[in-house]
């Protein structure tokens, strides 16, 4: 089996409404057989003659052997491109590239794993959960959102997880509060050895911070960087860069699509997102007066 991504015309099997989101199942055997949890796919939007050149990138919720191999993605209808996708019907064709990006790293031995998600991004945790279970790991979930309709996969998490903690800011599902508030107790109760996160950037920042406080490694999928404005998915457009502290101590601007989307949480410079830190490799230099040739008399 090759790790090389493929481009294919995928057939839409179903598009269904799930709470505030849409779940699209595509028949794409070549992509399904190559997929590893944490990777994503890039879908062309607008049809054959569209002026929308930028693809939409989504993590994969589930891969099945049905119809030779299907791939299911979950997304919010937030722009013209995703609106077009949500309007597809059975037997429509969608141009699809995948699987793309770096997957989650899996534990070598059976350990206790805490999977933390929010919004549609949390869908990517379920393929990971299945793989971890098959490796003999314990799988615990913490899922959160603003309201019950924003928490994707709550019933599935309760069914397949060894434990599942649900939290909403308005109290319509599970505990009233935020993931940040319930996460420390979840770590203690589950005896977690590693924390995985996928969802909004603010959630990933909290996951990383709290995991570090408990001395735990964290892996986070920065999918939101691929979805905010659309992205090429292959590292060319450079719209999804973020500062990352490397093993050698040097900060580099990495691409969420090609160098991620799964990254070590403790290596992401969360406080510098949206900027190029002055100490990053290749960062623009600010010239001093003397260097600019404008020294005072």
TrEMBL record:
<dbReference type="InterPro" id="IPR039261">
    <property type="entry name" value="FNR_nucleotide-bd"/>
</dbReference>
<dbReference type="GO" id="GO:0050660">
    <property type="term" value="F:flavin adenine dinucleotide binding"/>
</dbReference>
<feature type="binding site">
    <location>
        <position position="237"/>
    </location>
    <ligand>
        <name>[2Fe-2S] cluster</name>
    </ligand>
</feature>
<feature type="domain" description="FAD-binding FR-type">
    <location>
        <begin position="5"/>
        <end position="106"/>
    </location>
</feature>
<comment type="similarity">
    <text>Belongs to the PyrK family.</text>
</comment>
<dbReference type="GO" id="GO:0006221">
    <property type="term" value="P:pyrimidine nucleotide biosynthetic process"/>
</dbReference>
<feature type="binding site">
    <location>
        <position position="257"/>
    </location>
    <ligand>
        <name>[2Fe-2S] cluster</name>
    </ligand>
</feature>
<dbReference type="GO" id="GO:0016491">
    <property type="term" value="F:oxidoreductase activity"/>
</dbReference>
<feature type="binding site">
    <location>
        <begin position="81"/>
        <end position="82"/>
    </location>
    <ligand>
        <name>FAD</name>
    </ligand>
</feature>
<keyword id="KW-0274">FAD</keyword>
<feature type="binding site">
    <location>
        <position position="232"/>
    </location>
    <ligand>
        <name>[2Fe-2S] cluster</name>
    </ligand>
</feature>
<keyword id="KW-0249">Electron transport</keyword>
<protein>
    <submittedName>
        <fullName>Dihydroorotate dehydrogenase electron transfer subunit</fullName>
    </submittedName>
</protein>
<keyword id="KW-0813">Transport</keyword>
<dbReference type="GO" id="GO:0051537">
    <property type="term" value="F:2 iron, 2 sulfur cluster binding"/>
</dbReference>
<dbReference type="GO" id="GO:0046872">
    <property type="term" value="F:metal ion binding"/>
</dbReference>
<dbReference type="InterPro" id="IPR012165">
    <property type="entry name" value="Cyt_c3_hydrogenase_gsu"/>
</dbReference>
<keyword id="KW-0411">Iron-sulfur</keyword>
<dbReference type="InterPro" id="IPR019480">
    <property type="entry name" value="Dihydroorotate_DH_Fe-S-bd"/>
</dbReference>
<dbReference type="InterPro" id="IPR050353">
    <property type="entry name" value="PyrK_electron_transfer"/>
</dbReference>
<dbReference type="InterPro" id="IPR037117">
    <property type="entry name" value="Dihydroorotate_DH_ele_sf"/>
</dbReference>
<keyword id="KW-0408">Iron</keyword>
<keyword id="KW-0479">Metal-binding</keyword>
<dbReference type="InterPro" id="IPR017927">
    <property type="entry name" value="FAD-bd_FR_type"/>
</dbReference>
<feature type="binding site">
    <location>
        <position position="240"/>
    </location>
    <ligand>
        <name>[2Fe-2S] cluster</name>
    </ligand>
</feature>
<keyword id="KW-0001">2Fe-2S</keyword>
<dbReference type="Pfam" id="PF10418">
    <property type="entry name" value="DHODB_Fe-S_bind"/>
</dbReference>
<dbReference type="InterPro" id="IPR017938">
    <property type="entry name" value="Riboflavin_synthase-like_b-brl"/>
</dbReference>
<keyword id="KW-0285">Flavoprotein</keyword>
């Amino acid at each position: 089996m090759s790790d090389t991504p493929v481009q294919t015309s995928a057939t839409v099997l179903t598009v269904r409404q799930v709470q505030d989101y849409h779940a699209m199942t595509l028949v794409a055997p070549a992509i399904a057989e190559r997929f590893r949890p944490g990777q994503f796919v890039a879908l062309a939007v607008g049809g054959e003659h569209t002026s929308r050149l930028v693809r939409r990138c989504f993590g994969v919720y589930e891969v099945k052997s049905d119809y030779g191999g299907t791939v299911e993605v979950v997304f919010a209808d937030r722009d013209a491109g995703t609106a077009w996708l949500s309007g597809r019907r059975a037997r429509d064709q969608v141009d699809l590239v995948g699987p793309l990006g770096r997957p989650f790293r899996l534990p070598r031995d059976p350990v206790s794993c805490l999977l933390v998600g929010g919004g549609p991004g949390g869908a990517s945790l379920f393929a990971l959960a299945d793989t971890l279970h098959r490796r003999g790991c314990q799988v615990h979930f913490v899922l959160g959102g603003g309201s019950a309709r924003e928490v994707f996969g709550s019933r599935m998490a309760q069914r397949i997880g060894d434990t599942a903690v649900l939290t909403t800011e308005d109290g319509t599902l599970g505990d009233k509060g935020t993931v940040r508030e319930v996460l420390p107790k979840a770590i203690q109760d589950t005896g977690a050895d590693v924390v995985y996160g996928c969802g909004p950037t603010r959630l990933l920042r909290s996951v990383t911070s709290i995991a570090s406080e408990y001395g735990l490694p964290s892996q986070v999928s920065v999918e939101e960087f691929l979805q905010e404005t659309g992205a090429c998915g292959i590292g060319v457009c450079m719209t999804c860069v973020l500062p990352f502290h490397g093993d050698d101590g040097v900060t580099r601007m990495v691409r969420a699509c090609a160098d991620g989307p799964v990254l070590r949480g403790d290596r992401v410079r969360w406080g510098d997102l949206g900027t190029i830190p002055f100490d990053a490799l290749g960062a623009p230099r600010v010239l001093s007066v003397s260097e600019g040739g404008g020294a005072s008399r």
